[in-house]
């Protein structure tokens, strides 16, 4: 059963077609990777899903509800969260404060309640901090809640960004190159962690990733984009052996040599 459905999605920037007539079905609780050379339209697709861009043609539906025209914050409350290729943490805030920011769409206390310290507000804050600590433990950052985000090692910053995304209670999580800049050991740990997100939390994951060992190791389905057009889709093994994919990555000469 598809949780996210794209039909004929097209996004243009002036004369540049970043995404062209994209049909895509993301299965519930799947790890679905989107790959392709630089400039293929992968992050543009993420920006369309999360409401940062509006498409010129086609449709996007999440759990049967159209995402067309919805604001990013509304889409977040529906159950879609994301991370970014370049880490976007609040560097001078603590780890636990970063997670609390991610919880904001679901907090109900008013500014007046915060000033007067009403029982409802105090209870909500207490529960939010408890949930934040649980998320820190889940992502392997137990005991580091009071550290500034900028003082965490790179790999832990990646995990904190994912924890902040999970704080929004998503059913669909978009991960934009989560292993970028990681060493081989960190990459293996992140692969196992992404599988935990799906297996233990039941979160559906769409993954943009350049490391093929990651894509081939954890994906249920892989979609390949080239110049905004879908050129291949299937299991990791199917895609890996597709001549069109090899040509897109290596060029025509390289594909022939391959």
User: Structural class of the secondary elements?
Assistant: alpha/beta
| Average pLDDT taken over every residue | 89
- Helical segment tally? 10
Strand order in space, largest sheet: 6-7-8-3-9-10
Radius of gyration: 19 Å
Description:
This protein has ten helices and ten strands. It is of the alpha/beta class. Strands 6-7-8-3-9-10 form a six-stranded mixed β-sheet, with helices on both faces. A four-stranded antiparallel β-sheet has the order 2-1-4-5, covered by helices on one side. The chain is globular and about 60 Å long.
Question: What's the short story on this structure?
Answer:
This protein has ten helices and ten strands. It is α/β, with parallel strands linked by helices and 258 residues long.
What secondary-structure arrangement, pairings included, does this model have?
Elements lengths: L1 E12 L2 E12 L3 E5 L6 H8 L7 E6 L2 E2 L5 H7 L1 E3 L12 H9 L7 H6 L2 H20 L15 H13 L5 E5 L7 H18 L2 E5 L3 H7 L2 E6 L2 E6 L1 H5 L2 H15 L1
Parallel strand pairs: 3-8, 3-9, 6-7, 7-8
Antiparallel strand pairs: 1-2, 1-4, 4-5, 9-10
């Amino acid at each position: 059963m598809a949780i996210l459905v794209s039909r004929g999605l097209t996004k243009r920037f002036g004369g540049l077609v970043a995404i062209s007539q994209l049909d895509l079905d993301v299965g519930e609780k799947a790890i679905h990777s989107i790959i392709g050379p630089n400039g293929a339209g992968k992050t543009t697709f993420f920006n369309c899903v999360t409401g940062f861009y509006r498409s010129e043609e086609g449709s996007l539906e999440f759990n049967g509800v159209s995402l067309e025209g919805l604001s990013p914050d509304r889409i977040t409350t529906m159950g879609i969260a994301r991370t970014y290729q370049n880490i976007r943490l609040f560097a001078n805030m603590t780890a636990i404060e970063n997670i609390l920011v991610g919880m904001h769409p679901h907090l109900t206390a008013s500014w007046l309640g915060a000033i007067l310290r009403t029982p409802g507000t105090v209870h909500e804050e207490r529960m939010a901090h408890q949930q934040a600590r649980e998320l820190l433990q889940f992502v392997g950052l137990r005991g580091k809640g009071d550290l500034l985000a900028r003082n965490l090692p790179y790999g832990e910053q990646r995990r904190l960004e994912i924890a902040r995304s999970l704080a929004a209670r998503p059913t669909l999580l978009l991960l934009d190159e989560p292993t970028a800049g990681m060493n081989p050991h960190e990459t293996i740990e992140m692969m196992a962690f992404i599988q935990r997100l799906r297996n233990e939390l039941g979160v559906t994951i769409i993954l943009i990733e350049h490391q093929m060992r990651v894509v081939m190791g954890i994906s249920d389905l892989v979609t390949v984009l080239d110049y905004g057009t879908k050129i291949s889709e299937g299991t990791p093994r199917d895609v890996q052996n597709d001549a069109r994919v090899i040509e897109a990555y290596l060029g025509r000469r390289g594909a022939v040599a391959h």
